[in-house]
Amino acid sequence: MLYRKWGTDKDFVASYTSSNESDREIIEEVKTVMKAHVIELYLSGYIKKDTAKKILQAINSFREYTGNYEDIHEAMEDYIIKLVGEEGGWVGLGRSRNDHVSTALRLKMRDYLVNVFEVLYSLRISILERAEKTTEVIIPVYTHFQPAQPTSLAHYLLYVDEELDSVWDQLFTSLRLVNRSPLGSGAIVGTNVKLNRKREAEMLGFEGLVYNTISATASRLDLISTISSLTLLMLIFSRIAEDLILLSSSFVGIIKLPDSHVSTSSLMPQKRNAVTMEILRTKAGECFGHLSSLVTIYKALPSGYNLDLQELNRHYWECVKHVIPSIYVIKDVLEKMEVTGRFDDKSITATDVAEDLALTGIPYRKAYMEVANKIRAGTFKSEISFKSSIEKKAVIGSPNPELIKTEIELKKENIELKWKNFREYKSQFIDKISELKVIEDDILQ
């Protein structure tokens, strides 16, 4: 082992404290960070171009690694020194694993968030397109899981989009917070080497710096905040899954799930079990568990780097790996599910009857009790159709088909504006990263 001063590489402590398993998630990001560091050493005049070239070539050839290393950073540095020789040792100048891993984690999370935004946009567009076609597809809406009032499938879908819109904003804030560079901060108080931290940040496409070197090396707040936002997204999906499980059951039977989302029983051939929705609920639960682990580990740490921080890493990736598949599952089921139209309980128009009475001049509470007494006595009758019920709704955000059409247009404009802002923001760091490649190619030539 390259850094170990006490004991031997055969001590059980070496394997017990190793982060090699979770580090495999960030191999490419660690290589990119090391390249930026080497290039900065060259641009700042600390190493010669030929040395930089040899080290960059070694970094590019680094792949999977084996051996008793504490982490990927030690493994990579040892690999460089063995391949390049003594000159390879220059990579240790002005560098700590603390600022390097913090930078690599942010690069990984940034790339992941980009992918989330791209599939989340596709989901939201799909939702709005189906809402346009279902403004008059009637379903009952529930409170306390008791039938409440008539609404439309479009109204339900727009509720889902509204929830997603809130998380979109939180995720975009997370993206900007994550997109700040810790590189050049050393172990905790920086370094005597005059590294240009702003230039390093530019090369890696970061928007700016995590300025304070304690925060840069030892804070994981932005990453935990991102997992929190992603967990909220999974929370939304879990509620949708629960809705669809209940509404598609034979007890209710309002929704029919696509055949590709159900499975039968090994014994009971009539069953249509909502298996994808059940699994989605568990994935959401796993994210809640990983978020709980993150905050529980993080809450008691003293400021500055502690090895506990490396134990957070696997919880980031264990959660994030569930999110994009879940978006695809939700998109597919919302696109393909059918409304059976089997609901005919006219009592859910009772509120319409009471409001219509009140609008003739009767105090609403008196009208309410009049209708309630008829329901209790079993004499309630309503001439109001479900279609008429939703058409009567007069407030913004209600299922009135005309108001729904306006809402859909507003939501389309909203998501297109946010998508445009995201793409412009993404292009900024993509362009900057391409500049790093240009400098690297110049050195390698």
Defining key terms:
445 residues; Fumarase C, Chain A, domain 2; Fumarase C, Chain B, domain 1; mainly alpha
Task: Give a verbal description of the structure.
InterPro entries: Argininosuccinate_lyase (IPR009049), Fumarase/histidase_N (IPR024083), Fumarate_lyase_fam (IPR000362), Fumarate_lyase_N (IPR022761), L-Aspartase-like (IPR008948). The chain has 445 residues and is mainly α. The protein contains 16 helices and six strands. The protein has a two-stranded antiparallel sheet. A two-stranded parallel sheet has the order 3-4. Strand 1 and strand 2 form a beta hairpin. It is elongated and about 95 Å long. 38% of the residues are buried. The mean pLDDT is 95.
Main sheet attributes: strand count, strand direction, barrel closure: 2 strands, antiparallel
Strand content: under 5%
Distance between the termini: 33 Å
Number of domains: 3
How would you name the CATH homologous superfamily of the largest domain?
Fumarase/aspartase (Central domain)
Overall pLDDT confidence: 95
- Share of helix among residues? 55-70%
Count of helical segments? 16
Q: What integer value in Å does the Rg equal?
A: 29 Å
Low-confidence stretches: none
Strand order in the largest sheet: 1-2
Find the structural class using helix and strand composition: mainly alpha
Shape: elongated
Report the count of strand segments.
6
CATH class of the largest domain: Mainly Alpha
Based on the coordinates given, report the CATH architecture of the largest domain.
Answer: Up-down Bundle
Main location: cytoplasm
Organism: Stygiolobus azoricus
Pathway: Amino-acid biosynthesis; L-arginine biosynthesis; L-arginine from L-ornithine and carbamoyl phosphate: step 3/3
GO molecular function, one term: argininosuccinate lyase activity
